[in-house]
Design goal:
The structure holds two protein chains of two kinds.
Chain A lengths: L4 E9 L2 E2 L14 H11 L4 E5 L6 H15 L4 E4 L5 H9 L4 E4 L1 H5 L2 H10 L4 E9 L5 E5 L4 E6 H11 L3 E6 L11 H10 L4 E4 L5 H9 L5 E4 L1 H4 L5 H8 L8
Parallel strand pairs in A: 1-3, 1-11, 3-4, 4-5, 5-6, 6-9, 9-10, 10-11
Antiparallel strand pairs in A: 1-2, 6-7, 7-8
Helix pairs in contact in A: 1-2, 6-7
Chain B lengths: L1 E4 L7 H9 L4 E4 L2 H6 L2 E4 L5 H10 L2 H6 L5 E4 L1 H5 L3 E2 L4 E2 L7 E4 L9 E7 L14 E7 L1 E2 L6 E7 L1 E9 L2 E4 L7 H12 L2
Parallel strand pairs in B: 1-2, 1-3, 3-4, 4-13, 5-7
Antiparallel strand pairs in B: 5-6, 7-10, 8-9, 11-12, 12-13
Amino acid sequence: MLTKRIIPCLDIKEGRTVKGVNFENIRDAGDPVALAGLYAAQGADELVFLDITATIEKRKTLSALVNRIAHHINIPFTVGGGISTIDDVAMLLQNGADKISINTAAFMDPGLIKQLSNEFGTQCIVLAIDTKKEPDGEWYVYLNGGRTKTNSRAFDWAKQAVDNGVGEILLTSMNNDGTKAGFALDITATCAINLSVPVIASGGAGTMEHFKDVFQTGYADAALTASIFHFKEIEIPALKKYLQPFVNIRI
Amino acid sequence: MIAIIKYNAGNVQSVLHALQRMGVDAILTDDPAVISSASRVIVPGVGHAGSAMAYLRERRLDTLIAGLRQPVLGICLGLQLMCRHSEEGNTKCMDIFDTDIKLFQSPLLKVPQVGWNNIYDYKSSIFNELEEAAFVYTVHSYYAPLSDATIATTDYIIPYSSALQKENFYAVQFHPEKSGDVGETILKNFISI
């Protein structure tokens, strides 16, 4: 049976992991490759590297890092953050990324998704959507790392993007992100049930039960989280053991 | 030296990286002389069956691969290209395995299948030392139905061939290069055939 996926996310700045991470069993917790290797060994099903560097040197540093990750890690990984052109994507895939995730650039230029999926195949194009539930009860798309509101509804944008050829949706609820109060089950379920591609839920994980809920009630295909793994509030082997009676999981 | 067939699309580097991690000497190439003289040949592949076959045909690599005598391993699209025909782009393939590639169809389950799934019912030494129902990473919309050449089975929508073998030709639908320790064991077994 196909399993639900657990995906740690690593924020990268200038080739280093950003958030304070405390692991005594790796020498350099700021080294994305060392941390990624630890997560892979613990049973992470995939990894996401989100580059938040905003300099011109960025592409060079990022491609060198992606190349190093690809040489060391034996599970799939996605790279995202500021990707806006076919050349960006080609460079990352050539250096060994399995998938790339796009966000704002795809919204600003809806033709980009079609171009990318024709060029590289739908399986390697992930659409990241940052979404926020407004007082009117609707989930809206936000751009530029959550700073810019749009009038588009998250599900409508996701549906349009899937029709244009994205292979997966990475859905982050801004209402839930950082709260540790659980994932946004309603919008996750709406997307997961009605879209023909896998949905990765993100934002709000605080307990093991939250993962069970997002898989069972939110119908998510995968769950992504950063800080609770980085700070060892939950460890992947224990999480997977907890989930095993409820959902298909790889142990 | 292991030759990995160079393609026009997708992340074919990942197989090279995996072999390098294992300390195996490998080269990415579309040079017929290098392919013919390699000790093992890997046909990787991510992409579209039609454009991949067109690329191979243009360089006459389709007939070269089908005529190889050393162990050959097809991966993902590589498996599909080694079959007779694919529904993807109604493409005539290399006809090494006497089977036709079909598109997954289900109103309930997602296509492509993306993620980790089990392989079972092993019938080949390339699965030596693996536990039954080992997990592998897979991404695909098309599949090979069960046949006499099936050497491992996976269930998604229906049971299908997650691996095929005929004489010196081996093929897996999943990505051993992305399947952690299980994948490395399979690659090691293939190398030591």
